[in-house]
Amino acid sequence: MNTFAPLAAARPSSVFVPAFDAEAARRDFPILATPVIHGRAFLDSAASAQKPMQVIDAVRRCYEAEYANIHRGVYELSALATKNFEVARDKVRTFLNARESSEIIFVRGGTEGVNLVAYAYGDKFIGEGDEIILTYLEHHSNIVPWQLLAERVGAKIRPVPIDDAGELIMEEYERLLGPRTKLVAVTHASNALGTLPPVKQMIEMAHAQGAVVLIDGAQGAPHLKVDVQDLDCDFYVFSGHKVYGPSGIGVLYGKKAHLLAMPPWQGGGDMIETVSFEKTTFAPPPNKFEAGTPHISGATGLAAAIDYVTGLGLENIAAHEHSLLEEATARMRQIPGVRIYGEAKNKAAILSFMIDGAHPHDVGTIFDHHGVAVRAGHHCAQPVMERYGIPGTVRASFALYNTRHDVNLLIEAVDKVKEIFK
Ligand code: PLP
Q1: Which of 310, 345, 376 is at the close of a domain?
Q2: Residue 130 sits in which domain range?
Q3: 354 and 272 in one domain?
Q4: Ligand 1 in reach of 195 Cβ (< 6 A)
Q5: 341 has pLDDT over 80
Q6: What distance in angstroms lies between residue 218's CA and the mean position of ligand 1's atoms?
Q7: pTM of the full structure
Q8: Using one digit for the tens of pLDDT, what is the confidence trace for 148-200?
């Protein structure tokens, strides 16, 4: 029996103009109505965001009606799948305001994007005695690939320190930049503290020294309007699963001149022009960097996620998240024994804190018993923790579907911990 039933047309995003309506947005996320999270506060979207029906529908439609391997097929279904994949690429181009869709490379996620640049760009253009500037705010995925590169080629890592508020010390950045600096890799938003470094200024300063800049947008793309041309960054990476899209798909943006100059980093099908045992020639970017069958449904899902967030308006989402951050921060500040980490002037909607006498892991577990899902630990950003001399923090991160009710639950959960540890 043919069980195939065509899906209804893609669901339009709810309309939120003029004020952002988080309650309406919540209805787009079926998981928020399931028993495991209903009535509870999901405050861990910085780790991975939940998926709206629009994304789930798009992935389902891909497998139900539009799936075949891409680029290779001569039949209609493959042509349709290829078209969808390339439409998704162009959607990402618009999302980042890149000049050309050939500057958009699909990868598994932000981590893979950084590794790609470290191998393909780093091994060719960075050598013995050269310097790579990172910051104390970086996630391990924007540290370790550079350390591995430094070991391979004999380069040095120079980290920019932060002050007590979690701001980069720009005088130190200026001091570290020099003729030996070949690359600067900095986060668009810190996942541990929320700090938004002045990336545009940092890019300008690096370019003045002839260095290229990679921006880790894993926490930037979900919350900030990204314009890679305005930033003038050389590379930008982000992960689909943090912008309400599927996991296993992410993006590396690279300026065309760099992508043309870089060798491939993985070999296989789809990245070649011709192959013979004597000589293989490579396809132009982006295919040169996309060996093998890609995450076809992931690209479709990511395109739907981009439609979803741009439909709501990234500025509206950011303003909503910010108002929750401000309220939660103000209320936390009034609770004796709570210490907030990360008080930068410009912040993404991330609230990191400790409660006197309680280990972050215990706090996370007690919070869970009181209906609040947060992350506890070092958040894959151990240099930040080392800077403050702490094992980790409790991190509440806000997304478009969070509400004041979630803030209330968070504050109540802090009170419970304080009762237990008093
Ligand atoms: N960079 C930052 C700032 C992050 O927060 C994360 C994930 O938490 C990553 C990079 C790595 O992202 P992924 O695990 O999706 O590759």
Answers
A1: 310
A2: 55-310
A3: no
A4: no
A5: yes
A6: 5
A7: 0.95
A8: 999 999 999 999 999 999 999 999 999 999 999 999 999 999 999 999 999 99
